[in-house]
Every structure is written in structure tokens, then in C-alpha cells.
Amino acid sequence: MEEQHQQKETNKYSIIIPTYNERLNVALIIYLVFKHLKDIDFEIIVVDDGSPDGTQDIVKQLQKVYGEDRILLRARPKKLGLGTAYIHGLKHASGNFVVIMDADLSHHPKYLPNFIRRQAETGASIVTGTRYVNGGGVHGWNLMRKLTSRGANVLAQTFLWPGVSDLTGSFRLYKRSVLEDVINSCVSKGYVFQMEMIVRASRKGYHIEEVPITFVDRVYGSSKLGGSEIVEYLKGLVYLLVTT
Ligand SMILES: Nc1nc2c(ncn2[C@@H]2O[C@H](COP(=O)(O)OP(=O)(O)O)[C@@H](O)[C@H]2O)c(=O)[nH]1
Ligand SMILES: [Mg+2]
């Protein structure tokens, strides 16, 4: 009992949020993280890739309110892609756990306590949010986008057998050491990165748990997913098929 208590006290969560043109979302997401993680030790690491919309100005204002030890701004000069944004954020993380989530409110911070609780209950190395089990879902996507996401998951399920229902989602909690290990063995840079991460983690035998989330399409700003990303995804799938 005493030990469990101590364990809880010493856990720290580094929440990495990559941003590109998220001026309208970043304050809200940070506010909501603070609201939902009341008794938890955490820091937020914003990795902004030189957003022309002034995302960083907003983050700097928030640092004045919450403190520079709670909100870390670790910017890069230009848009360099999501995979390397996570690696960059991870370098600055001081927690023993790392959460990765989007800035656009598609990943609602209200789920964070569920991720943390599930990890504590099971001792899992990774807890991943899933849209594709009971209790999870997608809101606000048109049929095409739903089919693309579903198709991507079904394809990957069929060929890769990872034992995880949502491969392309990116709302996840990792033990930091596990994230460091898995991220270093990943080669992809774009959207395929999420799938590569979880497939490699599963192949390495890490304990992965899933919690249902409802993914809500962004209200402000625009998605960076395009046709070329779909081609990249398919290439990534084939690559994983032959290399893992
Ligand atoms: N730092 C950084 N963040 C990015 C980059 N591309 C996308 N993001 C952020 O990554 C998250 C997911 O991107 P988004 O466009 O919403 O993808 P979607 O949800 O799949 O449509 C958001 O927080 C974006 O601001 C990038 O190249 N660099
Ligand atoms: Mg999004």
C-alpha cells in the first residue's frame, strides 16, 4: 500500500504536443490538460515547427500563466514532419511516462486519466487510444475519410497482425524507456509512423493496452493529411510487411 502510494507520487508524465498552425487550438488543449490532470505531475512539451500563424506567441503567453516548467516550448525552424517532432520532444522530456497527442482537440484530454489508470492497473508499456472497439468512435469525418481510416486499419490488421485495433491513431501513453527503444527502430517519417511504432512495439513483445476514445474531427484549422500521405501509408505497409 505504502509502496503503491510512493509509486504514484514519483510518476511524471511528459505530454508531447506537436503543432503546426494550431494558434486557435493550442490554448484550449493546454487548458483542458490542466483541467483533467489535477493531481498528476506532468509537463507539456509543445514542438512547434515554425508555424506562420503565430502558434508560438500563444504558447509563450501560456508559459507566463502556467510556468515555463509546466509548459516547455521546444520549437524547430520549419515544418520537419511528425516523426521527428516526437523524437525532438522526447529529448526534452523529464517524465518517466510520455503521452503523445494532437493539438487540434481530436484527442480530448478528458481521456488522459483513463490512459493513466489503465497503465497503473496493468503495468502496460503502452496504452493506446482506440476508435475501433466498443465505446470508441469517430465524429465529424465524411464517409471518404472514415473509409480511408478503416481501410488503412483493416489492411494493416490483415497483413501485420499486430494485436491492436487502432494502428493509425496517435493518442498514446508510453513508458519513456519503451518509447525511446521503439522510436529508434522506426524509419518512417510521415503518418505511417504511428503504425510502424505500434507494429514494432508489438513485435518486440511489449505489453500494449487499449482504451476507447472518441476522435472528433478538428474544428479549427486544416488537416495536413493529403493524397500523398495515403501513398506513403501503403508504401509503409509493404515495408513493414517485409521487414518485421
Ligand atoms: N511539429 C509539427 N507538428 C505537425 C506537423 N504536421 C502536423 N502536425 C501536428 O500534428 C497533429 C496532427 O496533425 P493533423 O493535421 O491534425 O492530422 P490529422 O488529424 O490526421 O488530420 C496536429 O497537432 C498538427 O498541428 C509537422 O510537420 N510538425
Ligand atoms: Mg487532426
UniProtKB/TrEMBL annotation:
Protein name per UniProt: Dolichol-phosphate mannosyltransferase subunit 1
Glycosyltransferase 2-like domain ranges (all copies): 14-182
Family that this chain belongs to: Belongs to the glycosyltransferase 2 family.
Major site of localization recorded for this protein: endoplasmic reticulum
Entry function: Transfers mannose from GDP-mannose to dolichol monophosphate to form dolichol phosphate mannose (Dol-P-Man) which is the mannosyl donor in pathways leading to N-glycosylation, glycosyl phosphatidylinositol membrane anchoring, and O-mannosylation of proteins.
One cellular component (GO) term of this entry: endoplasmic reticulum membrane
GO terms assigned for molecular function: dolichyl-phosphate beta-D-mannosyltransferase activity
Complexes and interactors: Component of the dolichol-phosphate mannose (DPM) synthase complex.
Pathway as given in its UniProt record: Protein modification; protein glycosylation
Lineage: Eukaryota, Viridiplantae, Streptophyta, Embryophyta, Tracheophyta
Localization (cell): Endoplasmic reticulum
Keyword Cytoplasm: no
GO BP, sorted A to Z: dolichol-linked oligosaccharide biosynthetic process; GPI anchor biosynthetic process; protein O-linked glycosylation via mannose
Catalyzed reaction equations: a di-trans,poly-cis-dolichyl phosphate + GDP-alpha-D-mannose = a di-trans,poly-cis-dolichyl beta-D-mannosyl phosphate + GDP
Keywords from the named record: Endoplasmic reticulum, Glycosyltransferase, Transferase
Annotated EC: 2.4.1.83
Class in the EC hierarchy, top level: transferase
